[in-house]
Write a structure and sequence with these properties.
The protein is an alpha+beta fold and about 450 residues long. About 25% of the residues lie in helices and about 45% in strands. It has nine helices and 21 strands. Strand 11 and strand 12 form a beta hairpin. The protein is globular and about 85 Å long. The N and C termini lie far apart (about 105 Å).
Length: about 450
């Protein structure tokens, strides 16, 4: 009996030592993985992430994620920072995530951010983040796969200007590094905000996406996003109402793998404002085709290595031009809706030539070579409200005044089959008329001094 007990104790000691050693090893791997993967989360020079105060323990580690936002204009000027704050988080070591937030599941390690409001943040935001109302967790498997979750806890919150009633919502992303497969799902019954000014309600928001994630600028797959209703009311009357809004989209490569195309479809049932119908039965089909995969990958590499102090505007323009290495095609077919009681139908096809046809120092010439074909069918009153006065005169002279067709070729614009010339463009290269100088007193002495200085230089 004593021998059996001794064996059991020895086995328990070995298991405990093994678990402790595995937890220590998992902690080391977790820190190395976080430091290695952090650069991939950088979103250009405007958002910088930094891991700070990493304190590694045996079963858990703590650290701070410092987030710095920079104003794009400041970056072009001198790289000045405009906003910086830190968020604490805990790393739970494997091989078993001994924490109820991860349901004690096996994994290499888990990350549990503590969403904390900064001292100078608004009081209502502090209330929303208190008591882990928003909870984020991420677990990383032994094979590098990851599962990230965001939970919105249900409850009633008293805000400074009213009451916020939250329904429980769940967002989850699963990523498999073997094939770069990413699947995301989000379901949220919504919220209601009641205040003295009125009530705002969002009902039934959903999101689903499945595909392959390669980088910030290149994801291939398909998904959809929908909202059943957004309603804002005052004194029991609807001030704004949107119903049955849905977007579905797909991004895919062509047969060569060198070009990426995007397709999006948008539908909505109704939009009204102050009780008046604005949009009914809306439909939009949109495509953006032929963008360069190589240019997107180059943008990713530059974002990872971006130095805010060394932002080169000319290089940014060149990178933008490279996106159109194979040309580009933008298509709307159709946009169809009833707008303020009037039926509207629009189609548009715009094409750009390959960027190599123009000099990199003259990017606007690429757009001057664009070809555009537009057809808009609507009531004469609607066209009169949304088209230039010169075009309206041409439409009024035709029998079919409910259709507008516009074609652009090499900068020349044709409206309903007739060449249109912008009267304002005719004076673009002319000398300033003498009338502009009438009454002006010229300082000839200053002009003579300036001419002398130019001659000296």
């Amino acid at each position: 009996m004593k021998k059996a007990v001794g064996i059991a104790l020895a086995a328990g000691a070995v298991l405990a030592a093994g678990f402790t050693g595995a937890a220590w090893y998992s902690g080391v791997q977790a820190e190395q993985a976080l430091r290695a993967q952090l650069p991939e989360l950088q979103v250009g020079p405007t958002l910088q992430l930094e891991l700070a105060d990493y304190d590694r323990g045996l079963f858990r580690s703590t650290a701070l994620l410092t987030i710095r936002f920079a104003d794009p204009d400041a970056i072009l000027a001198d790289g000045s920072e405009t906003l910086s704050f830190s968020q604490p988080f805990t790393v739970v070591h494997g091989p078993v995530l001994w924490d109820s937030a991860f349901a004690f599941r096996p994994a290499a390690f888990g990350i549990k951010p503590h969403l904390a409001a900064q001292p100078d943040w608004p009081a209502d935001l502090k209330t929303l983040l208190a008591d882990e109302r928003l909870r984020v967790t991420a677990s990383i498997g032994f094979d590098g796969s990851s599962q990230t979750r965001l939970r919105i806890e249900a409850g009633e919150l008293q805000l400074s200007d009213g009451e916020l009633v939250l329904e429980r919502g769940d967002l989850q992303f699963d990523f498999d590094p073997a094939d770069r497969r990413l699947v995301g799902d989000f379901r949220w019954p919504g919220f209601t905000l009641r205040a003295e000014q009125g009530e705002l309600q969002l009902r039934d928001m959903r999101f689903h996406w499945a595909g392959s994630y390669f980088s910030q600028n290149l994801q291939l797959g398909a998904g959809e996003y929908q909202i059943a209703e957004i309603r804002a009311s005052q004194a029991g009357q609807d001030a704004f109402l949107l119903t049955d809004f849905k977007i579905s989209g797909e991004q895919k490569l062509d047969a060569s793998g060198e070009q990426v195309s995007s397709v999006a479809d948008l539908t909505l049932a109704d939009v009204s404002f102050l009780g008046q119908p604005m949009i009914h039965d809306g439909l939009l089909h949109l495509e953006l085709n032929k963008l360069s995969v190589a240019a997107l990958k180059k943008l990713d590499a530059k974002q990872l290595d971006a130095d805010p102090a060394n932002t080169d505007f000319d290089a940014m323009v060149a990178d933008f031009m490279a996106l159109f290495e194979h040309g580009a095609e933008f298509k709307i077919d159709p946009l169809r809706a009833e707008i303020q009681g009037e039926p509207v139908h629009l189609t548009l096809l715009a094409s750009l030539p390959p960027s190599a046809t123009v000099s990199p120092t003259e990017p606007m010439k690429l757009f001057e070579q664009a070809t555009i074909d537009l057809t808009l069918k609507a009531s004469p009153a609607w066209l009169a409200a949304w088209t230039p006065a010169e075009w309206q005169q041409q439409l009024a002279s035709e029998s079919a005044d409910d259709t507008l067709t516009v074609s652009v070729r090499s900068g020349a614009i044709t409206v309903n089959g007739k060449l249109w010339q912008d009267a304002n463009a005719e004076t673009g290269d002319e000398e300033m008329p003498v009338e502009f100088l009438d009454g002006a007193e010229l300082d000839t002495e200053s002009l003579d001094d300036a001419e002398a200085e130019l001659t000296r230089l």
